[in-house]
Amino acid sequence: MYMFAQIPERSMHYLRWVLTIAWLILIFSLFFDPISAKLTDYNNLSSPLRVDPDVCIKVQGVCLPQSSYQLGAPIFWGIVVPSGVFILLVFGHELWRRICPLSFLSQIPRALGKQRQKKQTDKSGKVRSEIYKVPKNSWLARNYLYLQLSLLFLGLCGRILFYNSDRLVLGSFLIFTILAAIFVGYWYGGKSWCNYFCPMSPVERIYGEPRGLLNSTAHEDSRSGITQSMCRIVREDGSEQSACVACQSPCIDIDAERAYWDGITQSDRQWLYYGYFGLVFGYFIYYYLYAGNWDYYFSGAWAHDENQLEALFKPGFYLGGNQIPIPKLVAVPLTLAICTFLGYFLGKKVENAYKVYRIRQKSPLPTEIIRHRVFTVGTFLIFNFFFIFGGRPFINLLPKFWHYFASILAAVLSSLWLYRTWIRDPSRYQREGLAGKLRKQLRKLNLDTAKYLDRRSLETLDADEVYVLAKILPDFTHQNCLKAYKAVLKETLEEGYTDFGHSLEILQQMRLELTITEAEHQAILTELGVESAELLDPEKQYSREDWLRLQSYRDALLESLLVTWKKDPDRQVGSELLEVLTGKSSREAIKHLLTELPAAGTETVESLRRQYRITGQEEEAILHRPPADQLWQNIARAFQVFDRLSFSSQSDREQQERILLERFRLFDSDGSGQISLEELKACLQAIEPGVTDKKIEAMLQRADTGRDNQISFQEFRDLLHQFHQ
């Protein structure tokens, strides 16, 4: 399931370059191609692509002139476009977005640091520059699906009328699309072209939501904060770091299924799914309505028709052997518009009929499930309908076996997708997501689970098995249960999965499984409010995407400071960096730290603030009092700055050991060889007087694998290495 999710971003980056260069070469061939026409020359008897002058392909009762042609347009329409649809349904949206050349090119302004900026004054009166984003309540943010579907409609009309076969018009259209994507990348931050403008985006949603056949599942992915096709960058050490700027919420790149369930009851989804069904149906049917036969389409003559532009004002329909005097320029949008509206109204009728049927069967379903199932069946049908036509001009050149193979492959894969998708529902999605968080808490409690798993790991358990395990573990007492529930609740609040007003509803399934009462839930909420008041403050609660934006900024800032320190270890940045990382009066510490940076380093920090749209308050919040894991991770990365040594030799490894021992002795004030809770408190509170005892105790528990309430040098070293890796 995770074959592409596990591919490193650096490898995908190289693949994007290869695909982008190949696409640009294809576009160039539309303007200049002295080679491929030789493959279609009727005298080239060895070529399967040769034109046969003896074959009559009739269009409105007249044989179409046959001559050699260049292959750029046929390859684009007959191979590239069908491949995209196939990838989306089988491998998921996450693969397509990670390899799409147009998405890649739209990020050129971001890579060059040349994006539109505006001045913003925060509550402290400080003026900062930030990258423009599409405003959340703007017309575009509310109506982008209608815009994208309209652009897709115009694009399909344009195909039939202007650039199916005219190479110069097609090449110009593709270049215009690239320039538009780059301009949007300059005008708005993030993946705004993909999310708000790209005409391919409706197709991505239809086939990629709620999930492709083989894609990963973001809500169950506890391996890292980077999921599916979300924006990311590669650090110097090769590890990956989120680069999310929260350009859209909910974001299909972060969690496609969450975006699907969040918007499924909105009316624009009906237009998207039902309208697309009718649009695709109308697009392919028009070839028959225009030519009067199917030979015109399946021969591929439409992709090299020399008379395409000349036919704009000629009859656009040919029915019953008679030309209908409606110009093709009118007939095409008329046909596609009628089919789109018919698809929309037919879809709504089917949806209502299914709803009534379930009521009559005395098993009514929520609107989300009704609509999801109709969407799913519609997607299954239109995918198979598409591949009756998609790529056929090339497939038909192959032996008969491959004709049947292509049809069977599309039917089998789409049937598997239908089976996998039909059973999805919002409650199952939430149950799986919360089970993933419970799995993480069970792992942190270090309970003896081995004898109950029969050599399996916690990661291989499905949601139901995780809950069963939690019920049968003798060491998972009710106190431990409440402790785990509290950690899950805190995580869901911190990371924007829910807010305190909806937490009772969102975590209902978990409470039932763990026999936790509503009163206990409210008591835990009260505890969290005392420990971290901002968790329950409506003004300080963030969406999942905004939380990722803030974490992305924090990681990027840390990375830039560490890089600066590595390049100039003698500069007085180290001690200041450790103070900032552990939250010491963050805003003042950051200001002081910036004075220690070279000009290039200061500009990097300011650039990050602009890119992630960070206010002074947000900066202070995310750098202040990080969780126990984050504290240890920050300390690990700060100490491991000495990895500028190669450690390839024994002397280097010994030097690393000495350095870590020196850092260990900073905590071990009595020289006992163990860091006690009191010593850990003394050291951390000297750096950050406001750090709570509970947070320090959590740090001790995280490091203390021997369970003797103290940290040995071995535990200290292992933990820092673990987080460094």
Largest sheet: spatial strand order = 1-2
> So what's the overall shape?
globular
CA radius of gyration is: 30 Å
- Quickly give the structural class: mainly alpha
Report how far the terminal alpha carbons are from each other.
Answer: 25 Å
Number of strands: 10
Explain this structure.
- With 725 residues, the chain is mostly helical.
- It folds into four domains: 9-302, no CATH class; 426-540, no CATH class; 545-624, no CATH class; 641-725, Recoverin, domain 1 (Orthogonal Bundle), CATH 1.10.238.
- It is 62% helix and 5% strand.
List keywords for this structure.
725 residues, mainly alpha, 4 domains, two-stranded antiparallel ribbon, two-stranded antiparallel sheet
